[in-house]
Amino acid sequence: MMSFALVCFKETVTDEKTTPKSTEGPIYALLAYGAWGFVPIYWKAVGIVPAPQMVAQRIVWSLLTVSFFFINKDARQNLFAVLRSPKNILWMFGSAIFLSSNWLLFVYAVQQKWLLQVSLGYFINPLLNVVLGALILKERLNRLQIFAFVLAVLGVCVYGVGLQSFPLISILLALTFAFYGLMRKQAPVEPMVGLAIESLLLLPLAAVYLLYQWWQGQLVFDQQIQLAALIALSGPITSFPLLWFAHAARKLPLSTLGFFQYIAPTMQFALAVFLYREPFSTAHLGAFVCIWTALAVYVGNSIFNRERLRAIL
After folding, report:
1. Disulfide engineering: 242 pairs with which of 26, 67, 191, 253, CB 3.0-4.6 Å?
2. What residue ranges of the chain have pLDDT lower than 50?
3. What is the DSSP letter of 223?
4. Which of 199, 170, 186, 32 is nearest to 102 (CA)?
5. Tens digits of per-residue pLDDT, 8-64?
């Protein structure tokens, strides 16, 4: 899905000076982030399926889908290299827990018509990544980064005071996504390899849960052929955007690719307001203005630092 892929693919991206200039990079980036932006429409279509069941199905079908990519010998070698490292497996198990938690929150929020909270959460996520990097990885924050984070916190406060409800889903989505990226940074692997291992680690739990639901007569999958086909699509819908992202990451500098990540939450915001007509009050506007301003400061600071580094070099 979005900024976590930037973290997990960071180590495999070539240097900006050696990255080939091509229109393919932006096209693949638009495909990936556009798909992640439109994906709430799919989750609305399978809204009849309880969120835990849908996440379990997603794990199974994602593993089945990505297995086809490992026909390639190089892909299999990359997979086995990660599987041979107990340390990497431990980190991947942690990332799998945060990923499945994020999926569950995302699907549940879309089903409950809280898409604005989803959008808010993914706008907050890049800022939260910076703060986690400072707290856990001891990365230094400059004044503009601190100011951007304070603005984001102000936005959350405006949301809470104005609507008299704390945006818990937004915060949990941002936190699970940020910790997912943090885990994946400890064991950097390509997106498709990472998804395969995470799905493999989660498969026993998902299979037991689905079998129990079937035993109880509550499994939705075997009730309608059309719905079963839609559920099976969760595999390609999860896997192909990651494949497109992988191609984009090979053809674009990471600093350029990072700016595409705001496409998805922007599209989710538009879907929530203009398609699904979720309530959008003055409190919503105030919160989003604070977050968008914080992101503008954050992005501007990133551009300034990149240009200054180029000048030095």
Report:
1. 191
2. 4, 7-20
3. T
4. 170
5. 444 444 444 444 456 888 999 999 999 999 999 999 999 999 999 999 999 999 999
Give Cα 86 distance to the centre of its chain. 25
The average confidence (pLDDT) of the chain is 86
| The residue type at 245 | F
From the list 86, 87, 99, the residue with the least C-alpha distance to 8 is 99
Contact 294, 127 (CB under 8 A): yes
**Structure token digits, residue 183:** 């885990």
**What is the chain's length?**
313
Determine how many CB atoms are found less than 10 A away from the CB of residue 230. Answer: 17
Cα gap 41→73, rounded to integer Å: 35
Contact 125/174 with Cβ under 8 angstroms?
yes
Other Cβ atoms less than 10 A from the Cβ of 88: the count is 18
Show the tokens assigned to 1. 């899905």
Query: DSSP character for 255?
Result: H
Our CA dihedral for 158, 163, 169, 171, rounded to 10 degrees, sits at: 10
Given phi > 0 = left and psi -120 to 50 = alpha, else beta, which region is 138? left
User: If phi over 0 gives left and psi between -120 and 50 gives alpha, with beta otherwise, what is residue 220?
Assistant: alpha
* pLDDT computed for residue 151 by the predictor: 92
